[in-house]
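Rotation project, supervised by the postdoc (A.L.). Task for the rotation student: set up a whole-complex structure prediction and record inputs and outputs verbatim in this book. Inputs entered:
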Amino acid sequence: MTTSTERARVPAVEGFFTMGDEPQLIGGRLETGGYCFPLHLGGSDPRCPAGAVEEVLLSRRGRIWSFTNSAYPPPPPFIITEPYVPVVVAAVELEVERMVILGQVTPGWTVDDLEVGMEVELDLGVLYADDDTDHLTWQWRPLLGADVVGVVGGGAAGEED
Amino acid sequence: MEEIAVLGVGMHPWGKWGRNFTEYGVHAAREALADADVDWNDVGFVSGAITVRCGYPGYVAGSTFARALGFNGAQVASSYAACASGVTALSVARGQILSGACDVAVVVGADTTPKGFLAPTGGDRPDDTDWLRFHMVGATNPVYFAMHARRRMALYGATPDDFAMVKAKNSRHGVHNPNARYPKEYDVDDVANSPVVSDPLRLLEICATSDGGAALVVCSMDYARSKGVTDPVRVAGLSTVTPTYPDTVIDLPYLATDSAAAVEPPALGFKDSIGAQVYAEAGMGPSDVDVAEVYDLSSALELDWYEQLGLCAEGEAESLLRAGETSIGGRIPVNPSGGLGAFGEAVPAQAIAQVCELTWQLRGQAGGRQVEGARVGVSANQGLFGHGSSVLVRR
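Outputs recorded:
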């Protein structure tokens, strides 16, 4: 007999993304108008007084600027799940924010499936798991068949409600 | 910019020797002093490049080397700028010399490195971008190198064969270098048969981590003349620039670039600005350069440097390589030393080693890897977290 238990889902590190079905990266907007990620790092605009960064949610969609994988397991503090499946990494350009953000690509995709310019959407995935908890990170999920023009941005960035 | 002279250069061969880093640095410094015919007791300033892998003695590298050479009362400083540490140390020494604080200085860096990926400092440090990129993404150094390689493929039609040709070229140069760790010739097929590390880059195209040491004896032009050296190799330009906001090219160890939403990117990107600064200081341009030593952390990154140093126009690096122009005997030989491909990286020594090689080239002492008639040489390199590094030397 099995007992049905709900596994807990928590961010591997707090403060990088929102949870839920439509997760978003938590970035910052500088007083001078530029964005930064992660929020705590702040921006490097010399015209912007230190600390003048407000929290904003970044666009969920962007286009692949470049991509690769790590055929060998990365060293700690990366936590390897055995058997190791090569991590695929994409640098994704957000149209509204005009910046590029790194992230893993959703499991199941390999470098052979990707190309520069491909549209992707933010998702959450398991970075590592222990007995009853999945520790999550942000991941880029390729959008197949998506309209390739005019979708990026989605209006999330800069709209603080 | 007023010039200083490179009076002596020295290196401890690169390898995986497993000994204390101090030994390599002292070996290199003694060789440089002998090459310069300068007595250690005449040295007024020791500029050490720091290693973060060898404990406290590495953090205070300048005084560690000074003590091992024999405390002579010289003033001392130690510099850390990741891969750019050596040029930062040279920059500090130049300032001491040009301010009149000393006549002659020793610049020295050495490292003992562990096997495998360079990884961040230990502990749980989620406010450190260098820790985060490993933990949250698994983004090793080769991941960043490979993204830049892939970008060349997408923008300029580069192929994996082009990248392999860089490795093959540098290996042909490196067989003539007694200080190289891998004095072995590889061809494009050897590269293609090595395992993928980060697609499209393969094991033979990723810089290894090495033990090694390099040193310079630098001095005022007056001091050089007092030693009877009337035509020394001179440091005509030196660049340690940081990026100008917004830097829109993703680079290690960051998770994101700056944003260009409010300010257009500068006309020159960060890596272009490194060379621009060194040329401006020297009052020279790319067409004056006879030989270059650039940081081929990966084969493909060497191609980026061709363009960033102005040796060719953007998108033309592959053509320059394929035409053999960056091989010894070509129009502008790059990495006659064999580069990192033949050396692996001994972080605090590497930027100094670039200047050693250019000095030998400009003196006509580079043996089987000599670039005939070289009068002007330029080095380029970049330390993570935004450290530019470039030196222009001339006769």
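Student's summary: The first strand of chain B starts at residue 4 and ends at 15.
Supervisor addendum: The two ends of chain B are 15 Å apart (CA to CA).
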